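Course assignment 3, question 2. Fill in each field.
Student: A.L.
Task: Predict the tertiary structure for the chain below.
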Amino acid sequence: MKNKLFFTLISFIVLFASCGKSSEEKQDEGLFSFSINTDLKTKTSSEYSLDNVTKLLITLKHNDQTLEDFDNKEIKLSNWGNGKYTSESISLIVGTGYQLTKFELQNSENKVIYATPYENSDLANQVSNPLPIEFGINKDRTSEINVEVLSTEAKDPSDFGYVSFNVIDKTSGNDPLIGNWIKSSSFPGSPRGAAVSFVIDDDAYVGTGYNGKDCLNTFYKYNLQQGWTKIANFPGTARREAVAFTANGKGYVGTGVDEDDNRQSDFWEYNPTTNTWIKVTSEFPGGARQSAIAFSINNIAYVGTGYGWQEGEDRNNLKDFYKFENGDWTKIDFDGEKSRNATTFVINKKAYVVSGDNSQKHVWEYAPSKVSSTSNGWTRKRNLDQDYNNEEAQRSEAISFVIDNKAYIATGKKGAYSREVWEYEPTKDEWTKKTSLEDEIPSREDAVAFSLNNRGFFTTGNASGNYLDDTWEFNPTMEETDDDN
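Answer field:
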């Protein structure tokens, strides 16, 4: 019976029924609930028995943005016997564009014993409709979708495409710091620091940098299923401290400094389909610089800050910003300080510029949707300082990545190397300390990071002149363990 449960799919029907609002100004809402109807007999002592299921954990998106009220939403289940369960009802506004992006069944001890795999995961082919699952809420009509789950017994979370099945209650102030680092396959190229990274679809790209002797032009691709693969070399001048971004399915690399300390201003475009590079014909108007930052929102890229020549004086920290759209550059305003070696990330179509040299306590948010005749789109967020008990998050030359619409910063330095790891939740503008880098992970600066399938990684870096090629994945909800190192 245990083996049969291990391979059997259990179908869940999501039932929707419309219920209109009394006021015509309010949008209609539709109630929905989850129900389980199965003849599978699982009444055994196994902790993976269906009888032990007590609740659901789901995450919903609407128009590609996670719904705050349904981010890891816990839903209670009622057991009616004979393999029949129903959930409490919840409501959504009538419309389309919804996605179910997490579906887990837990027992009374908060252990996930069934889950739905993600597309492209190892177990995706064992269900007919892997996550994410698109659906709509209809008015005056009942709809349904099927959600299939697999037992988690003898399986790893990564088999499902999840970072972790562990859900930690962080409401208690006495809880230990949470987070676990997992060693991944090493970067296959020359160990290096001050490289760049960008992501296109399911692949991360890492290249350029410095190995202590030479600037480098080699590039490699990382895929969760296929690992590391070498791609075409970067054809521009070999360099370090450049920037990179993605727009319209292409990768871009530019600026930086060569091994003779000549700063660069050119940009190059990478086409993953043809594995070729071409030079961007539009000249970057900000001039040559190093240690800048770049990010993309809605296929429009932004490059700014850094260290370089401007206004007739060399070796300046810079604050100018430029927008790259459809092959052309346009200068935009930036309310922040002159800075270099900051870190940046994007969550829900908003970019965040964090810390860096000359601006270590500052955090800025940029929302293109807020740009108007009266706003340039920039908003100052809470400082990293003693007032908010997050001063240890200050640093330069750090890395950042995003998991479940929260950002994580690690590595870098503030005088000495920083080993603390911090989580940022933009909806609350709050920073939370996580477990520090584990003892097996060398302290470093000039690493690079990326997110793939909602999983965060960093690789390479410079540890006091010792150049690195190790790669690490961070699990923000799992307690620290050395078993995966």
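Instructor remarks: DSSP finds two helices and 38 strands in the chain. The chain has two domains: 2-160, 180-475.
Grade: pending
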